[in-house]
């Protein structure tokens, strides 16, 4: 380990003895995806093109302790470099990111020497454009203070229908408020309300035949707000289509 990394680990370890200000938590952050963020598209939440999903490049892959098996997909975090623990911070700067991916553990590396996403570490592998708003590129990794915050979006929730005739995967993006979804039900013109199960990331699964039916959704955020989005998907929908709504969460 080079001298700069040795110094960083020592400073970070010392800083952890002191409690952060109320509402803030200690973590670390690296970056990936290139200077234009193009390498961050896709990811374990399943959003695909992050611009089309409403998230852009202010995004991050979360370590598993934060990712929570996909339940954190879409959540927002305010992150600032901890200038008390590192000389590589951009003073006074902060950035709000959206969770769009998983940073998996690297069991071949110790958690303080390369295994930054190993449990139980809270770590953000941020899109490079977002990371460079708070840290100096040369550092590579910085200590941060973070807290979950309300997500603000332009427009309503976007609903994407995937799958096949007897198997639908419904993805919700551009989600405001708490940013993430606790539960989903769907109602076709020929069905009652059907509860969906989380399949992976931000994708919810339905095993009923819904092709050719107008679809309505009951969606509850992790903040506890429930929306009824009636008739948002017309009966002529096809797999792969995206349907914007006029509804979004406040919390």
Give a description of the structure:
- This protein has helices at residues 3-15, 64-67, 128-131, and strands at 25-32, 59-63, 76-81, 94-103, 123-127, 142-149, 158-164, 167-173, 181-188, 193-195, 197-200, 203-206, 215-221, 226-233, 242-244.
- By secondary structure, it is mostly beta strands.
- It has 2 domains: 25-149, RlpA-like domain (Barwin-like endoglucanases); 157-245, Expansin, cellulose-binding-like domain (Immunoglobulin-like, Sandwich), CATH 2.60.40.
- The protein has a 6-stranded mixed barrel with strand order 1-5-2-4-3-6.
- β9 (181-188) and β10 (193-195) form a beta hairpin.
- The chain is elongated.
- The protein starts with a helix and ends in a 7-residue tail after the last strand.
Keyphrases for this structure?
251 residues, mainly beta, Barwin-like endoglucanases, Immunoglobulin-like, 2 domains, 6-stranded mixed barrel, 5-stranded antiparallel β-sheet, 3 helices, elongated, disordered N terminus
